[in-house]
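Thread: Newbie trying to understand structure tokens

Hi all, I'm a second-year student working on a class project, and my supervisor (Dr. K.) asked me to get a predicted structure for one chain before our next meeting. I've only ever worked with sequences, so writing a 3D structure as a token string is new to me. If someone could post the tokens and maybe explain what I'm looking at, I'd be very grateful. Here's the chain:
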Amino acid sequence: SSPDRSEQIAEFLAPAYFTLSLGLDFKPKSNISLYLSPIAGQWIYMRDTTGMDPTRYGIEAGKKSKSDAGAKVELKNNHDLWDFLKVDNRVILFSSYYDNPEYITIDWQVTLNFKINYFLQTSVYMNAVYDRHNSKKIQFKETLGLGINFRF
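---
Reply by user tm_fold:
Sure, no problem. This is what the structure looks like when written as tokens:
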């Protein structure tokens, strides 16, 4: 049986997060990047709010979107630990200029890429998000992928 729509938390483009920023990207090494943006716009959009609570994502009841301006810092690095393992790490920090600037949104993404053999590769993706504007809990997402490489 299908779940009741009133229990639905999210669906395609509900919510959707968009960010536009202007800043400087500092790359001291080829595998490290530090992006500093004092001017960043962030938009949250819900295509459909029927049966879903938009306040769960910081959008006012009865509305479909929310915009905010603030500062953004993004740190990216990747390392080849061994011949068979590559680690991609990304941390994004955002602080609003208007809505509780002391509450910093943290989005941490880690991808482990394992080379099994000449044809097979697997990836483990982990994402942790802390956004005190919406919840006092840390949200986690993990994904496991298996890929086949074709070489010509």
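A couple of things are worth pointing out once you decode it. The CA atoms of residues 9 and 52 lie 6 Å apart. The first strand starts at residue 16 and ends at 29. Feel free to ask follow-ups in this thread.
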